[in-house]
């Protein structure tokens, strides 16, 4: 109840848009005319044809006919909750953004958890990456951290996103997610895309069958840029850590639950919040000042890499509580439109090649998904601060915009705001210059060392589960060439892992090759996760396994 009592400007704003049907005046048409019968249509005589003159019947059917909108192209299956964020440790040396400086603020949030691959009606407990998208309704505008529960991503470049998703989704001929051809396609793509192997290790681990959204980490994945009041820039990775600890299902449980209760995670979140057992997450940052950008064996701009905590510890600076379920799934959870480009002054894009086209993609898809350019006016998407600009018109405009619609003008409003008064001024960054071409940085070519680090950091039982997952998934492939390709790639991560997977598939165990093509020796000798709890504390060393009594 202490949590409920916290005043929340977003809730106050949503209340203005909420229609309470327990206080109705009776059923009316959309245009306010009360209706005496909503069960019988107007007919030309008893047993005669229905008349289109019946405005109410036509309106009722027409509205129903248009209830569905396209599901998200990825992360279609999800569930959301409202909450709030509080900072306890300001970081003025990193950013001037008030949300990360002012400990007196309570910032409203909305979180949407999701799976990536399945349809809107698919099961919750599948082996998949989970989305952990958070919107902060700050006084400087909306800030979205559109995170996943894996700290790394499949691919280094956004231009490959349609390919990885086509390979992950059901194959186009059958649209059967579990078809062998779908497994062939996925592993075919992975086998030919070694940069995805680190991500795939997380994918095949217990991490990707979480026990509950309340027991799952979130990672902003990219290195973002934060800027302090002196204009100094740092690379920052954002982390969420659940107060309940990180827990997973075992595969057998996940399979059974998917059949018995496909809404397992959704129900778990609602039940916990309704029972007053509010999920809570610590918020952490890993900070690398810009001058240290090149101090690592990997590139900070490469989203297939973590920054091991041994090199840069995570500093926990605040926490988020989720304390309210949405009143209307469609209006809130379905219509929220997250985007990585929603950043507030003091937080900016880095040059991560996964990030810029990603920012473009979200807004672009929302133009279709939410039917035009005015989705910012939907209640869940409205910032809590006032918004004035010169954008006008478009489908479903719901504001009456009175006053000047261009700038500069003779009226002096709406006007740009100087940086010292809160206007967004992007920090200047010198560019290296060079040649315009399709290239990637030199450090983007080493793909195996962090996958090996992840494998080495696992306990025996976790290793067993990874072997089991690879064997199960590759065992569903039809194409022997694809399996061989994958075994070759897994062998570059670890020979023992490759041999165990080969054995369980009744295939020839591969011969030991120089680990990681010999490229990663220096990195791996810097960090020894077997002897250190640190390397993966935030990013994955240990996980407790959940064993459900019922199974
Ligand atoms: C949706 C995470 C990369 C395109 C989402 C969602 C999450 C997410 C959590 C669900 C948002 C929601 O709940 O509404 C990530 C992460 C990425 C990544 C962590 C890598 C670091 C990309 C890339 C692209 C992309 C590279 C495209 C180039 C999309 C699209 C949606 C989506 C189009 C659907 C948005 C909507 O319909 O509202 N992503 N994503 N994502 N993502 Fe990503």
From TrEMBL:
Q: Which reaction does it catalyse?
A: 2 H2O2 = O2 + 2 H2O
The EC number(s) given in the record are 1.11.1.6
Does Iron appear among the keywords? yes
Q: Report keywords, A-Z.
A: Heme, Hydrogen peroxide, Iron, Metal-binding, Oxidoreductase, Peroxidase
Spell out the GO cellular component terms annotated for this protein, sorted alphabetically and separated by semicolons: cytosol
A GO BP term here is: hydrogen peroxide catabolic process
For the ligand (heme), the binding residues are: 362
Identify the cofactor(s): heme
Query: What molecular function does GO assign, one term?
Result: metal ion binding
Q: Please list the residue ranges annotated as the Catalase core domain.
A: 28-415
Describe the function of this protein. Answer: Occurs in almost all aerobically respiring organisms and serves to protect cells from the toxic effects of hydrogen peroxide. Catalyzes the degradation of hydrogen peroxide (H(2)O(2)) generated by peroxisomal oxidases to water and oxygen, thereby protecting cells from the toxic effects of hydrogen peroxide.
Which family is it part of? Belongs to the catalase family.
Task: Name it.
Answer: Catalase
Q: Supply the source organism for this entry.
A: Tulasnella calospora MUT 4182
Starting at the broadest rank, the lineage of the source organism is: Eukaryota, Fungi, Dikarya, Basidiomycota, Agaricomycotina
